[in-house]
Write a structure and sequence with these properties.
Helix 2 packs parallel to helix 3. The longest helix has 33 residues. It is built from three helices and four strands; from the N terminus they run βααβββα. It is α+β, with helices and mostly antiparallel strands. The C terminus is likely disordered. The protein has a four-stranded mixed β-sheet. The chain is elongated, with a radius of gyration of 18 Å. It has one domain: Ribosome hibernation promotion factor-like (Double Stranded RNA Binding Domain).
């Protein structure tokens, strides 16, 4: 899996290696479905503080389109963990829907012969 990291914030750039390793670890079971992930960390309010650390994860999947997940928290790690948790659940749901619809369509068509 290819992981791309984007951030304009100096603090977030320090977490680059941690973020890339965390994404690979969280998506290790779904690497066959996600060949490319992009993580963007941004500080919404700047130096004012508060719940303003945003993590956006864009997952390009094979056959299921693009999945975009965003989470906000007080610190970078919490935002990253929340976004990865949501992304994992969403990917599993997309994967299950895809399998279910294919199996259903195969069963619904009678074989002639």
């Amino acid at each position: 899996m290819q992981v791309l990291f984007n951030s304009r914030d100096g603090e977030a750039n320090e977490l680059r290696d941690f973020t890339m390793a965390r994404v690979r670890f969280a998506m290790r079971r779904l690497t066959w479905l996600v060949p490319r992930a992009t993580v963007q960390l941004s500080d919404v309010n700047g130096p004012r503080g508060g719940v303003d650390k945003r993590c956006q994860i864009v997952l390009r999947t094979d056959g299921s389109g693009t999945v975009v997940v965003t989470a906000m928290a007080r610190d970078w790690r919490s935002a990253l963990d929340a976004a990865l948790s949501r992304a994992g659940r969403l990917l599993l749901r997309v994967c299950r829907r895809g399998k279910g619809s294919k199996e259903y369509s195969r069963q619904a068509l009678p074989l002639e012969g």
